[in-house]
Amino acid sequence: MRKVQVVGNSTYVVSLPKNWVKMMGLKQGEEVLIEPLADGSLRVTPLKGVKDRHASVNINVACSEDVAVITRRVVAHYLAGACEVSLKLEGSDCGGLAKVVARVARDKMLGVEVLDEAEDSLTLYAVLDREFTDFITVVRKLFKAAAFMAEALVAGLEEGREDVLRNVFKRDDIVDKLYLFILRYLTESLMTLKGDLGFTPPEALHIVLMSKSVERLADHIASIALNSIALKNRGGLTALKPVMPLLKDVPNLLKELTEAFTECDAGKAEEALLHAKEGKRRERDVRGKILKGGSPPELSYVLESVRRIYAYAVDVAEAVIDIAAIRSLRELRTSS
Description:
Blueprint: E1 5-7, E2 11-13, H1 18-24, E3 32-36, E4 42-46, E5 56-62, H2 67-80, E6 84-90, H3 97-108, E7 112-118, E8 121-126, H4 135-159, H5 162-170, H6 172-192, H7 201-234, H8 244-263, H9 266-290, H10 297-335
Parallel strand pairs: 5-6
Antiparallel strand pairs: 1-2, 3-4, 6-8, 7-8
């Protein structure tokens, strides 16, 4: 606990704890950086300890390592906020490993460009800066991308067009990109807490859970597209006719969830929650009526994805309700 002292007519002074000064190695006359944070607190940082925020990371890996593990390591540093990731491959035969990682970076990481690529090395750079991006808009785009997939899925099934269904599957990469960028944005924001973030740290937890649920929901839309193609190749999409009302309902549900989040409206989120729970009940009814011993396995896979879509929609609605409750309580505390 420290008391605020007044020096002169306009300067307010708070002394620094002696133990902290010693731990930081500060000496008289050295400068510190004082930053106002989004939660109203101040952060004091020794100026000599402030590092370039455009962090560069070097990763050395053996070509014998699993490509999925190597790729995930690169993604982890992207999520942590690294602006430049340099990958050095060690081994006699890397077999185009750098090209595989570069392709994943382009497909899965928003705003990442390949600066340099060779057989044994790769350098990636994040060109999209958090400070020039409106966070709420990014999350809204995540919702809209999933809704677009759902609408395209219905159109592809109604028209029997395999090319449209395959495009639905490919568009899942856009959802993945947005989801990973949201995680990167939240990570960087919570590390610095600078400026008006558009959310508070307690809300960030629920935003992560909500975004992950939207991403998983989109995965199942993509899965339905692939299984529908398999059903079509088996002899037609007739088996999906009883499921179509459920699939047509998903875009509407996603629009409700988008509005609830954008407006942070607990009432609309509760309506979407009831909508999703009713969808789960309807899926059980359809499952009981059409799944028989000789049903193609893809039909069961489609119904399981429908069930999970509604389950993830429930999670999204609950997250919005939780965020609204946090904001309501904060307003009450502020006004009292």
